[in-house]
Specification:
Length: about 400
């Protein structure tokens, strides 16, 4: 089955055309990215058969962007299918499912209305997600669509993990609680890591560290998420590329008061927390962990702060989740930083023997972008680097829904 996987942001569309065979093996036929949608000049990158097409062109809206994608997929030179009828389903990544969606779902009018009702929980992401769904309905109205939610995997969190220490009425009135994100990744890599050592993830206690520009950690007890670092929004938890992670609410109130007094709007202040904080804010403009490492090695003080703070926060949550679950069988690292930045895994995993975590650092320092066990044979906790594939998860969920499974 050929499935088009879409991840639509407010001004971008990421896509992959994935072919899944009868044995559930997948092949990425083409993938790409449209950026700066709705601005004067957009950018379109399309990768196919080991080649890349790039152009700058105006992209009026998401519908126009979807039409560009479909045209590229069937283009005589850079296309990978002959007819759009070969696309049998579309899988859409949706950021927030609130408490309404505990699993993926086929798109219909009711599902769309429910997603719209959750708009306030993810105001930066949901409009783009919906725009992609609407665009596909317009361009390929007869192709079934599914929605896969970042939050669904964490719907098993118990109240002690998802409630905030705020008046309970805010949860009752506004559903204000911790939801968690990166669920498609955490569930996929946890099960995959267990298979790598010949075990069933439902028999294990697993700590999953999805580390990238967006970063979160999940405590997974016998196949269920019981705690995670992100909360109502993707701002909570670890320090991230441009997001602050855990912060004293008093500091937020202080910033809001000061910025409003200087004439800033709430939109301006929101932008500070989503786009100008985290590694970017601490280091002075660096977001890529490789650049931060280079700055640290060159003696840049602020890059050193950013590097050390990131490692410390990850280490802190690992220890906390081990205490919370009463142990850990597998500690895994995934995501762009988790899979590739051995130089960040190194300080995170140093001096963790007290928790039963012993790592072969020589092996760790050679692993980039591949699946590997990096703990020593006598380690009580098996530490594994696991490559994630969220698009595959979306495609598989979509196929099962369309086939009625």
């Amino acid at each position: 089955m050929k499935i088009l996987v879409l991840n639509c942001g407010s001004s971008s569309i990421k896509y992959q055309l994935i072919n899944i065979d009868a044995n559930n093996n997948s092949t990425v036929m083409a993938k790409g990215l449209l950026e700066r949608i709705g601005l004067e000049m957009g950018e379109f990158t399309h990768k196919y058969n080991g080649q890349k097409h790039y152009e700058q062109t105006p992209i009026a809206d998401h519908t126009a962007g979807i039409r560009m994608v479909l045209k590229a997929l069937t283009d005589p030179e850079m296309g990978v299918i002959k007819d759009l009828k070969e696309i049998e389903a579309v899988g859409n990544r949706v950021a927030h499912g609130g408490e309404l969606f505990k699993a993926s779902a086929l798109v219909n009018d009711d599902v769309i209305e429910k997603i719209k009702s959750l708009m306030e929980l993810a105001p930066l992401h949901t409009p783009g997600n919906l725009a992609g769904i609407y665009a596909m309905r317009e361009v390929l109205p007869n192709v079934p669509q599914a929605v896969v939610f970042d939050t669904a995997f964490h719907q098993t969190l118990p109240p002690k993990s998802f409630l905030y220490g705020l008046p309970y009425e805010y949860y009752q009135k506004y559903h204000l609680r911790r939801y968690g994100f990166h669920g498609t990744s955490h569930g996929f890599v946890a099960e995959k890591a267990a298979k790598m050592i010949g075990k069933d993830w439902k028999d294990l206690k697993i700590i999953s560290c999805h580390l990238g520009s967006g970063a979160s950690i999940a405590a997974i007890d016998h196949g269920k998420s019981v705690d995670t670092t992100m909360g109502l929004t993707a701002l909570e938890g670890l320090i991230m590329g441009s997001r602050p992670g855990d912060i004293d609410p008093g500091a937020v109130l202080y910033i809001v008061e000061k910025e409003l007094a200087e004439g800033k709007t709430m939109k301006d202040i929101t932008n500070i927390f989503y786009k100008k904080s985290g590694l970017v804010g601490i280091s002075g403009g660096k977001q890529d962990m490789r650049d931060i490492r280079a700055g640290r090695d060159a003696g840049d003080e602020r890059s050193t702060y950013a590097f050390d703070m990131f490692a410390q926060r990850v280490k802190r949550y690992i220890g906390g989740y081990m205490a919370e679950m009463g142990g850990c069988d597998i500690l895994l690292f995934t995501g762009g930083i988790g899979e590739n930045a051995w130089f960040m895994r190194h300080p995170i995993l140093e001096n963790m023997e007290c928790l039963g975590i012993k790592v072969d650092m020589e092996k760790n320092d050679k692993i980039m972008g591949e699946d590997a066990v990096i703990s020593t044979p006598d380690s009580k906790v098996t530490t594994i680097v696991v490559t994630t594939d969220e698009e595959y998860v979306i495609a598989m969920d979509t196929m099962k829904l369309v086939q009625g499974k």
